[in-house]
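Re: the 321-residue chain
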Amino acid sequence: MHPISHTLRAVLMTILLSGLFVSCNKANEEATPKSASDLIQEDNSFSLLRAAVLRANFADALKGASLTIFAPNDDAFKAAGFADVASINALPIATIEQVLKYHVFNGLVKSDAPQLGTNTPVQSIGGGTAYITKTVSGSTAGVTINGARVIKADQAVANGIVHTIDRVLLPSAPSILSALQSDPANFSLIVAAINRVPSLAVQLSSTLAAGQPVTIFVPDNAAFAATGSPLANLAAINAASLTTLSSVLGYHATSGLTFSNQLVAGQLTTLNPTSAKLTVVITTNTPTIKGNQNTTAATIKRADVVANNGLIHVVSQVLRP
């Protein structure tokens, strides 16, 4: 055989083998399952979540084994007031880490899991409790967590499952009272009223639900100060009798957990001493709450604030039994 032909054959064989090795390596790379961290890094709908993960150096935590992650998309972050990466980076790292930990759970929770019912409690890797609800029929069919809707379920990754949700979840507060005390600019008046009723203060400051959580409709300071409010300021609260305070405050609370998406038109029995009822009105999927002596219904200004012993909805009026 001519020497040139022998050389050409060797070169061609080298090229062919190199191509086979490259193809095999590429195939292996493509066959390698992606982790939850990889999915968030590569999916453009998670650019703000990705920024939060980077800011908190949280990527490795999303590579742990057997995780379920409820991942807020960009629209969820924007709805929470985070318009861009700069707004994420302006937050303290510790705060971002706490928020991210509240979206991650050990074990696999699929949307068709038979154990899911109404407000099934699950504990995040950060220690806070969240509540998953599965609805099988009607306009609200699907899965929610703390009232946030799962809009893309059961995205399988190498280390677990990712569910895309439409709202950023905030870590649960130790108690309803501690959540209110942490924001005196908005809730100093109701905190003063609660503290004047010892039994109620003990119940709302408990760090454990003890099987009896409550949902409380909380008027903010602006609602207390509104014209016609029976407890318009601190002096009025301190002058009110315990009977009056118990009646008014109990009228803002109901037994159990009722997230905003679980409110239905009709009446709610309250913890008022006479079991007086609130009226729920649903207009274009938006609930409002009316007291017996209120001339108009109160709007929910902020919904689904979770505490370890219950749930807060901030409302625009003091509700009157």
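The first helix runs from residue 3 to 31.
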